UniProtKB/TrEMBL annotation:
SUPFAM superfamilies: Six-hairpin glycosidases. This is Alpha-L-rhamnosidase C-terminal domain-containing protein. Pfam families: Bac_rhamnosid_C. Residues 648-706 form the Alpha-L-rhamnosidase C-terminal domain. It comes from Lederbergia ruris. InterPro entries: 6-hairpin_glycosidase_sf, 6hp_glycosidase-like_sf, Bac_rhamnosid_C.
Length: 708
């Protein structure tokens, strides 16, 4: 066999027997032929279970089952360093007593609870686990690609694995940083950070050992960081050379350290989204790298903007290190653009684009620091920016598929009933913007499965759900009865959108015939602190146009409000021609985040002047201090609002084959221009406001697009 340069081949996948959980004892093997002798050979693997590794029938090593084995690549230390030319067989006998844990919230991952991943490498040799490996007399099944949940990124991964199991994550050097402070060292920056000086005190590293398996990667890492942070806080670091870095924007970032000195170095580091989180949060990212002289090491990418580095090693010795920074995101070409003579409007658009872009990773994550997962409502909202920004929707599609295909009948997606309804709306809006019938038909079985589950949970005579469940439509606290009404308003919206989809794709089956629940207008216009309640009444049509306009004209954004509800508020205002009210919402909510030097938009929002805005967001439900994400994909929605109501392009038929062109000018706006992505190419728009207040507009669209 001839291979490629180390790490440049295909990234390995998690594999297992096709029978899944029915087979907890299996043999996985790979036969290969070498044309020549190969040197520098090693074999590394991760798995659920105990593994006995054989090469050419000889037992090389046995790994005992341990939670550690599913978190990192373990090197088989007794594996031969050289392999002779000829035929070889690598065989792994696996016995698993403890699969990965699963809960209703992760039920869509229940076919990924057992797995093994590994790679054999050497000089011009690269053999990763894939479906060419065998178990019994059949090929193994791919459980998931590298980086997917429930395993996530693995420690000790080659740096090139950052491109992810779908092979489409790209990296880009971060060229500008700010040094905020330094202690007992000198530094300089020229595309990379150089630090040097004299080492001071030293201390032993904390002993950390994985004790449990976790349903998600981020839960495991946060547990680990808390323990390491506790250890760090027991130290007096004032005598340790240190430096604080601002990457100037939040990124899904990693850093690579080169030890250019003559002694081993340890780099203790912390990462965060805000300075207050860096200084005060018990769960702040906390870890270390150990680097031998003339060697380098890197971290797995994490969502952060600020970094603290503490450098230590042999006391009274000189050190010299070089640190480079990279961001990672899915490779997408930006088609949608916007500019105007309003700096704040431009800034909101640009920061929303950045927020949306960096949440495109293996999936369309809700955020890059915490819950790096495919949450239905999050990617439904994020997709609103996707449809006008990017050249393709590969990340969105695999997110739709993961929840739709992985969640079995009898379960709600992400364990939240409203999320299954949002999934249907997501499928409709995907088709509306793409006319991708092939994808919709590929999802037919899953659409019908979840449609049947919802139908089976509805009372046929009343249209209400049979059982009440824990309320969730928004992080803002709400009363159970408020949620119950708004949830059924969402059900009405879902029925309408599903029937629109079925009208265009009749192969999906008969129209949905759920009984319309008897909802009362006055139940949505109660004095609720949850803005989403009246908005769901308006969006569903339960609240009349007259009452909707009355509410929208008088409502003033106040705490508690999130960017989630703020988008729907702006959308409703623009729908009824209240464009200045909609713009006021963006200025208040997104403008406030920008006032706080935000470079990405948040999961929630506060409209107060308190110093530590990040900590103060704990007024919302479910989260303790600093857990609210400062980079959240569902807050990128201003991109769609600007495209629809400032540039004025709104699709009326699937695939943008027919669009309404109706810019709604702002009083202070004199000029704007931009582009919107469609399946046929970009639509270009230019709007000028003449001195007499009239609009002079220009629109250029592909021939397949009809402007009305």
């Amino acid at each position: 066999m001839t291979g490629t340069t180390n790490y440049m081949g295909k990234i390995p996948s998690w594999v297992w027997h096709e029978d899944g959980m029915k087979q907890k004892e299996i043999i996985i093997k790979k036969t290969f032929h070498l044309l020549n002798k190969v040197g520098n050979v090693s074999f590394k693997m991760a798995l659920t279970g105990t593994a006995s590794v054989f090469l050419d029938g000889i037992l090389i090593e046995t790994l005992k089952e341990h939670p550690r084995l599913v978190t990192r690549f373990e090197e088989i230390t007794n594996f031969p360093n050289h392999l002779k030319a000829g035929q070889h067989e690598l065989k792994i006998e696996i016995k698993c007593e403890t699969p990965m844990p699963v809960a209703p919230i992760s039920i869509h991952l229940s076919n990924r609870l057992l797995g093994m991943i590994g790679y054999l490498e050497g000089d011009d040799l690269w053999i990763p686990t894939d479906t060419t490996w065998m178990t019994e007399n059949r090929q193994v099944t791919e459980i998931c690609v590298y980086g997917e949940e429930p395993f996530g990124d693995l420690e000790n991964s080659p740096p090139s694995f950052i491109r992810g199991g779908f092979e489409d994550i790209v990296t880009k050097s971060i060229k500008e940083i700010t040094i905020l402070k330094e202690n007992l060292l000198e530094s300089k920056w020229q595309d990379q950070l150089e630090i040097y000086g004299d080492l001071g005190e030293t201390f032993p590293l904390s002993e950390f050992e994985e004790k449990d398996r976790f349903i998600f990667y981020h839960v495991r890492k946060q547990t680990e960081w808390r323990e390491k942070r506790k250890w760090q806080r027991s130290l007096d670091l004032r005598g340790i050379p240190s430096i604080r870095i601002d990457l100037q924007k939040e990124y899904n970032a990693r850093f690579i350290v080169k030890n250019k000195g003559a002694i081993p170095l340890t780099i203790l580091w912390n990462g965060s989204e805000s300075i207050d989180e860096l200084e005060h949060y018990d769960g702040c990212m906390t870890d270390w790298l150990e680097i031998e002289p003339n060697c380098q090491a890197s971290i797995l990418p994490q969502g952060m903007r600020y970094l603290d580095f503490f450098i230590y090693g042999q006391p009274n010795c000189k050190f010299h290190a070089e640190i480079g920074f990279e961001e990672a995101y899915a490779e997408l070409e930006q088609v949608g653009r916007f500019t105007s003579d309003l700096p704040l409007l431009n800034n909101i658009y640009d920061v929303a684009v950045h927020t949306n872009r960096i949440c495109h990773q293996l999936g369309l994550w809700d955020g890059i620091k915490r819950d790096r997962l495919n949450w239905v409502y999050d990617y439904y909202m994020a997709a609103k920016a996707d449809y006008v920004l990017w050249d393709d929707f590969k990340v969105l599609k695999r997110s739709i598929v993961e929840l739709g295909h992985g969640t079995p009948y009898g379960y709600w997606m992400n364990s939240i009933p409203s999320y299954t309804l949002w999934w249907f709306n997501n499928v409709w809006e995907y088709y509306l913007h793409t006319e991708d019938k092939e994808f919709i038909l590929a999802m037919k079985e899953d659409i019908q499965k979840h449609l049947q589950w919802v139908t089976d949970n509805i009372e046929s005579d009343t249209g209400f759900f049979k059982e009440k469940h824990a309320p969730f439509l928004e992080w803002v606290p709400m009363e159970e009865e408020e949620y119950w009404n708004a949830f059924h308003a969402l059900l009405m919206i879902t029925k309408k959108n599903l029937n629109q989809l079925i009208a265009y794709v009749p192969e999906l089956g008969s129209p949905v015939k759920w009984q319309e629940p008897n909802l009362k207008e006055e139940d949505f216009l109660v004095n609720s602190q949850a803005l989403i309640i009246p908005l769901m009444g308006i969006l569903s049509g339960v609240v009349s146009d007259t009452k909707a306009i009355e509410f929208l004209k008088t409502y003033k954004p106040t705490n508690p409000i999130s960017p989630l509800s703020a988008f729907w508020l702006a959308e409703c205002c623009s729908k009824f021609g209240l464009q200045e009210h909609a713009w006021n919402v963006l200025q208040i909510v997104w403008g406030y985040m920008l006032e706080k030097d935000s470079t990405t938009f948040w999961e929630s929002s506060i409209l107060t002047g308190k110093r530590d805005f990040h900590h103060n967001q704990t007024t919302y439900t479910a989260y303790d201090s600093y857990r609210m994400s400062l980079c959240h994909s569902w807050s990128s929605t201003p991109v769609q609002w600007i495209s629809r109501y400032i540039l004025g392009i709104k699709p009326m038929k699937p695939g943008f084959r027919e669009v309404v062109f109706k810019p709604l000018p702002l009083a202070e706006l004199r000029y704007c221009s931009g582009s919107i992505s469609t399946p046929f190419g970009a639509i270009y728009v230019q709007v000028n406001k003449e001195k007499n207040g009239e609009l002079a507009t220009k629109v250029i669209a592909p021939p397949e697009v009809r402007i009305i």
